[in-house]
Amino acid sequence: MSIFAQIFAYSFSVRALVVGVLVSVCAALLGINMVLKRFSMLGDGLSHVAFGAAAIGLAMGIAPLKIAIPVVIVAAFLLLGISERGAVKGDAAIAMVSSASLAVGIIVASLTTGLNTDINNYMFGSILAMSKSDIWLSVGITAVVLAAYLLFYHKIFACSFDERFAAATGVRVKIYNALISILTAVTVVVGMRLMGALLISAVMTFPALSAMRVCKRYSTTVLCTAAVSAVAFVTGLLLSFGFDMPVGATVVVVNTVIYLAFLCIRKLKR
Q1: Dihedral through CA 191, CA 192, CA 198, CA 199, nearest 10?
Q2: What's the whole-model pTM score?
Protein backbone atom coordinates (compact mmCIF):
# COMPACT_ATOMS: atom_id res chain seq x y z
CA MET A 1 0.00 0.00 0.00
CA SER A 2 2.88 2.37 0.73
CA ILE A 3 4.29 1.74 -2.74
CA PHE A 4 0.89 2.50 -4.27
CA ALA A 5 0.80 5.74 -2.28
CA GLN A 6 4.23 6.69 -3.63
CA ILE A 7 3.18 5.95 -7.20
CA PHE A 8 0.05 8.08 -7.05
CA ALA A 9 1.94 10.88 -5.31
CA TYR A 10 3.83 11.74 -8.51
CA SER A 11 2.21 12.73 -11.79
CA PHE A 12 4.91 11.08 -13.93
CA SER A 13 4.38 7.71 -12.20
CA VAL A 14 0.61 7.91 -12.71
CA ARG A 15 1.18 8.62 -16.40
CA ALA A 16 3.58 5.69 -16.60
CA LEU A 17 1.01 3.41 -14.93
CA VAL A 18 -1.79 4.40 -17.31
CA VAL A 19 0.34 4.34 -20.46
CA GLY A 20 2.08 1.13 -19.42
CA VAL A 21 -1.10 -0.84 -18.77
CA LEU A 22 -2.79 0.35 -21.97
CA VAL A 23 0.24 -0.20 -24.18
CA SER A 24 1.00 -3.58 -22.58
CA VAL A 25 -2.53 -4.83 -23.26
CA CYS A 26 -2.41 -3.59 -26.87
CA ALA A 27 1.04 -5.04 -27.46
CA ALA A 28 0.01 -8.40 -26.03
CA LEU A 29 -3.16 -8.62 -28.13
CA LEU A 30 -1.26 -7.73 -31.29
CA GLY A 31 1.45 -10.18 -30.26
CA ILE A 32 -1.02 -13.09 -30.48
CA ASN A 33 -1.26 -12.59 -34.22
CA MET A 34 2.51 -12.43 -34.61
CA VAL A 35 3.13 -15.53 -32.50
CA LEU A 36 0.55 -17.60 -34.38
CA LYS A 37 2.01 -16.50 -37.73
CA ARG A 38 5.56 -17.27 -36.52
CA PHE A 39 6.48 -13.62 -36.93
CA SER A 40 7.30 -12.98 -33.28
CA MET A 41 10.44 -10.98 -33.97
CA LEU A 42 8.53 -8.30 -35.89
CA GLY A 43 8.14 -6.25 -32.71
CA ASP A 44 11.87 -6.43 -32.04
CA GLY A 45 12.69 -5.38 -35.59
CA LEU A 46 10.24 -2.47 -35.55
CA SER A 47 11.55 -1.27 -32.18
CA HIS A 48 15.07 -1.05 -33.62
CA VAL A 49 13.72 0.87 -36.61
CA ALA A 50 11.91 3.20 -34.19
CA PHE A 51 15.14 3.79 -32.27
CA GLY A 52 17.01 4.67 -35.46
CA ALA A 53 14.25 7.08 -36.52
CA ALA A 54 14.13 8.65 -33.04
CA ALA A 55 17.90 9.17 -33.05
CA ILE A 56 17.67 10.94 -36.42
CA GLY A 57 14.80 13.06 -35.13
CA LEU A 58 16.76 14.13 -32.06
CA ALA A 59 19.77 14.96 -34.25
CA MET A 60 17.58 17.12 -36.51
CA GLY A 61 15.84 18.82 -33.60
CA ILE A 62 12.46 17.33 -34.56
CA ALA A 63 10.07 15.57 -32.19
CA PRO A 64 11.13 11.89 -32.41
CA LEU A 65 7.56 10.56 -32.54
CA LYS A 66 6.79 12.64 -35.65
CA ILE A 67 9.53 10.80 -37.51
CA ALA A 68 9.41 7.41 -35.78
CA ILE A 69 5.71 6.63 -36.32
CA PRO A 70 5.59 7.01 -40.14
CA VAL A 71 9.03 5.40 -40.58
CA VAL A 72 8.05 2.36 -38.49
CA ILE A 73 4.75 1.99 -40.37
CA VAL A 74 6.63 1.98 -43.68
CA ALA A 75 9.11 -0.55 -42.25
CA ALA A 76 6.25 -2.82 -41.16
CA PHE A 77 4.79 -2.85 -44.68
CA LEU A 78 8.28 -3.38 -46.13
CA LEU A 79 8.93 -6.41 -43.94
CA LEU A 80 5.54 -7.93 -44.71
CA GLY A 81 6.07 -7.34 -48.44
CA ILE A 82 9.49 -8.99 -48.40
CA SER A 83 8.11 -11.96 -46.48
CA GLU A 84 5.11 -12.40 -48.79
CA ARG A 85 7.22 -12.29 -51.95
CA GLY A 86 9.54 -14.90 -50.52
CA ALA A 87 12.69 -13.09 -51.62
CA VAL A 88 14.01 -13.27 -48.08
CA LYS A 89 12.48 -15.25 -45.23
CA GLY A 90 10.69 -13.24 -42.55
CA ASP A 91 13.20 -13.78 -39.76
CA ALA A 92 16.14 -12.94 -42.04
CA ALA A 93 14.44 -9.77 -43.30
CA ILE A 94 13.73 -8.64 -39.75
CA ALA A 95 17.33 -9.33 -38.72
CA MET A 96 18.70 -7.25 -41.59
CA VAL A 97 16.35 -4.29 -41.18
CA SER A 98 16.59 -4.19 -37.37
CA SER A 99 20.40 -4.43 -37.30
CA ALA A 100 20.84 -1.78 -39.99
CA SER A 101 18.37 0.59 -38.29
CA LEU A 102 20.01 0.19 -34.90
CA ALA A 103 23.46 0.78 -36.40
CA VAL A 104 22.28 3.93 -38.21
CA GLY A 105 20.74 5.25 -35.01
CA ILE A 106 23.90 4.71 -32.98
CA ILE A 107 26.12 6.30 -35.66
CA VAL A 108 23.85 9.35 -36.04
CA ALA A 109 23.69 9.80 -32.28
CA SER A 110 27.46 9.49 -31.83
CA LEU A 111 28.16 12.02 -34.60
CA THR A 112 25.62 14.61 -33.40
CA THR A 113 24.13 14.70 -29.91
CA GLY A 114 26.16 11.77 -28.59
CA LEU A 115 24.80 8.88 -26.55
CA ASN A 116 23.13 11.24 -24.07
CA THR A 117 20.20 10.79 -21.71
CA ASP A 118 17.56 11.20 -24.43
CA ILE A 119 19.11 8.43 -26.53
CA ASN A 120 19.39 6.15 -23.51
CA ASN A 121 15.73 6.80 -22.67
CA TYR A 122 14.68 5.50 -26.08
CA MET A 123 17.05 2.54 -25.96
CA PHE A 124 16.35 1.37 -22.39
CA GLY A 125 13.12 3.20 -21.56
CA SER A 126 12.41 5.80 -18.90
CA ILE A 127 9.46 6.29 -16.60
CA LEU A 128 10.16 10.04 -16.66
CA ALA A 129 9.67 10.21 -20.45
CA MET A 130 5.88 9.81 -20.28
CA SER A 131 3.86 12.93 -21.10
CA LYS A 132 0.17 13.80 -21.28
CA SER A 133 0.25 13.42 -25.06
CA ASP A 134 1.49 9.85 -24.58
CA ILE A 135 -1.56 9.13 -22.43
CA TRP A 136 -3.97 10.35 -25.09
CA LEU A 137 -2.07 8.49 -27.80
CA SER A 138 -2.14 5.26 -25.79
CA VAL A 139 -5.86 5.68 -25.07
CA GLY A 140 -6.50 6.15 -28.80
CA ILE A 141 -4.42 3.08 -29.70
CA THR A 142 -6.20 0.98 -27.08
CA ALA A 143 -9.61 2.05 -28.35
CA VAL A 144 -8.69 1.17 -31.95
CA VAL A 145 -7.15 -2.20 -31.02
CA LEU A 146 -10.14 -3.23 -28.88
CA ALA A 147 -12.57 -2.03 -31.55
CA ALA A 148 -10.68 -4.03 -34.19
CA TYR A 149 -10.89 -7.18 -32.08
CA LEU A 150 -14.60 -6.69 -31.40
CA LEU A 151 -15.59 -5.80 -34.97
CA PHE A 152 -13.26 -8.13 -36.89
CA TYR A 153 -12.75 -10.91 -34.37
CA HIS A 154 -13.50 -13.82 -36.73
CA LYS A 155 -11.52 -12.33 -39.62
CA ILE A 156 -8.46 -11.68 -37.43
CA PHE A 157 -8.81 -15.23 -36.11
CA ALA A 158 -8.88 -16.63 -39.66
CA CYS A 159 -5.92 -14.51 -40.82
CA SER A 160 -3.88 -15.56 -37.80
CA PHE A 161 -4.28 -19.30 -38.30
CA ASP A 162 -4.53 -19.82 -42.06
CA GLU A 163 -4.26 -16.92 -44.51
CA ARG A 164 -4.93 -19.09 -47.56
CA PHE A 165 -8.15 -20.47 -46.12
CA ALA A 166 -9.21 -16.99 -45.04
CA ALA A 167 -8.58 -15.63 -48.55
CA ALA A 168 -10.51 -18.53 -50.08
CA THR A 169 -13.54 -17.68 -47.93
CA GLY A 170 -13.55 -14.07 -49.12
CA VAL A 171 -11.57 -12.39 -46.33
CA ARG A 172 -9.39 -9.54 -47.55
CA VAL A 173 -6.26 -10.79 -45.85
CA LYS A 174 -4.00 -7.96 -47.02
CA ILE A 175 -6.29 -5.31 -45.53
CA TYR A 176 -6.37 -6.95 -42.10
CA ASN A 177 -2.63 -7.62 -42.16
CA ALA A 178 -2.09 -3.95 -42.99
CA LEU A 179 -4.37 -2.89 -40.11
CA ILE A 180 -2.50 -5.07 -37.63
CA SER A 181 0.85 -3.88 -38.97
CA ILE A 182 -0.08 -0.20 -38.53
CA LEU A 183 -1.37 -0.78 -34.99
CA THR A 184 1.74 -2.79 -34.12
CA ALA A 185 4.03 -0.06 -35.44
CA VAL A 186 2.34 2.70 -33.45
CA THR A 187 2.20 0.56 -30.29
CA VAL A 188 5.91 -0.22 -30.56
CA VAL A 189 6.82 3.47 -30.90
CA VAL A 190 4.74 4.51 -27.87
CA GLY A 191 5.86 1.56 -25.76
CA MET A 192 9.51 2.18 -26.63
CA ARG A 193 9.50 5.36 -24.53
CA LEU A 194 8.63 3.36 -21.42
CA MET A 195 10.08 -0.11 -22.05
CA GLY A 196 12.97 0.79 -24.34
CA ALA A 197 13.74 -0.37 -27.87
CA LEU A 198 15.60 -3.41 -26.57
CA LEU A 199 12.75 -4.74 -24.41
CA ILE A 200 9.40 -3.73 -25.95
CA SER A 201 9.22 -6.89 -28.09
CA ALA A 202 9.14 -9.04 -24.93
CA VAL A 203 5.86 -7.41 -23.88
CA MET A 204 4.38 -8.47 -27.24
CA THR A 205 5.39 -12.13 -27.06
CA PHE A 206 5.61 -13.29 -23.43
CA PRO A 207 1.92 -12.76 -22.44
CA ALA A 208 0.68 -14.51 -25.60
CA LEU A 209 3.06 -17.43 -25.09
CA SER A 210 2.05 -17.67 -21.42
CA ALA A 211 -1.67 -17.73 -22.23
CA MET A 212 -1.16 -20.38 -24.92
CA ARG A 213 0.34 -22.71 -22.33
CA VAL A 214 -2.94 -23.01 -20.41
CA CYS A 215 -5.70 -21.91 -22.83
CA LYS A 216 -7.10 -24.08 -25.62
CA ARG A 217 -9.59 -21.67 -27.23
CA TYR A 218 -8.69 -18.51 -29.13
CA SER A 219 -11.21 -16.39 -27.20
CA THR A 220 -9.89 -17.44 -23.79
CA THR A 221 -6.33 -16.95 -25.04
CA VAL A 222 -7.12 -13.34 -25.98
CA LEU A 223 -8.65 -12.61 -22.56
CA CYS A 224 -5.87 -14.38 -20.67
CA THR A 225 -3.18 -12.60 -22.70
CA ALA A 226 -4.62 -9.17 -21.89
CA ALA A 227 -4.95 -10.04 -18.18
CA VAL A 228 -1.41 -11.46 -17.94
CA SER A 229 0.07 -8.41 -19.69
CA ALA A 230 -1.70 -5.93 -17.39
CA VAL A 231 -0.84 -7.85 -14.21
CA ALA A 232 2.79 -8.25 -15.28
CA PHE A 233 3.21 -4.54 -15.94
CA VAL A 234 1.60 -3.41 -12.67
CA THR A 235 3.64 -5.96 -10.71
CA GLY A 236 6.82 -4.92 -12.50
CA LEU A 237 6.12 -1.24 -11.84
CA LEU A 238 5.55 -1.89 -8.12
CA LEU A 239 8.73 -3.95 -7.83
CA SER A 240 10.75 -1.33 -9.69
CA PHE A 241 9.57 1.34 -7.25
CA GLY A 242 10.09 -0.86 -4.21
CA PHE A 243 13.59 -2.04 -5.12
CA ASP A 244 14.75 0.90 -7.26
CA MET A 245 15.10 -1.13 -10.47
CA PRO A 246 14.52 -0.20 -14.14
CA VAL A 247 10.84 -0.50 -15.07
CA GLY A 248 11.29 -2.16 -18.45
CA ALA A 249 13.70 -4.84 -17.29
CA THR A 250 11.58 -5.59 -14.20
CA VAL A 251 8.42 -6.00 -16.29
CA VAL A 252 10.21 -8.43 -18.62
CA VAL A 253 11.49 -10.48 -15.66
CA VAL A 254 7.96 -10.65 -14.22
CA ASN A 255 6.67 -11.82 -17.61
CA THR A 256 9.37 -14.49 -17.67
CA VAL A 257 8.36 -15.74 -14.22
CA ILE A 258 4.70 -15.86 -15.24
CA TYR A 259 5.58 -17.83 -18.37
CA LEU A 260 7.57 -20.37 -16.35
CA ALA A 261 4.70 -20.66 -13.86
CA PHE A 262 2.17 -21.29 -16.65
CA LEU A 263 4.54 -23.82 -18.19
CA CYS A 264 4.70 -25.70 -14.90
CA ILE A 265 0.89 -25.61 -14.63
CA ARG A 266 0.60 -27.12 -18.10
CA LYS A 267 3.01 -29.92 -17.24
CA LEU A 268 1.16 -30.63 -13.98
CA LYS A 269 -2.14 -30.88 -15.86
CA ARG A 270 -0.61 -33.39 -18.26
Answers
A1: -20
A2: 0.84
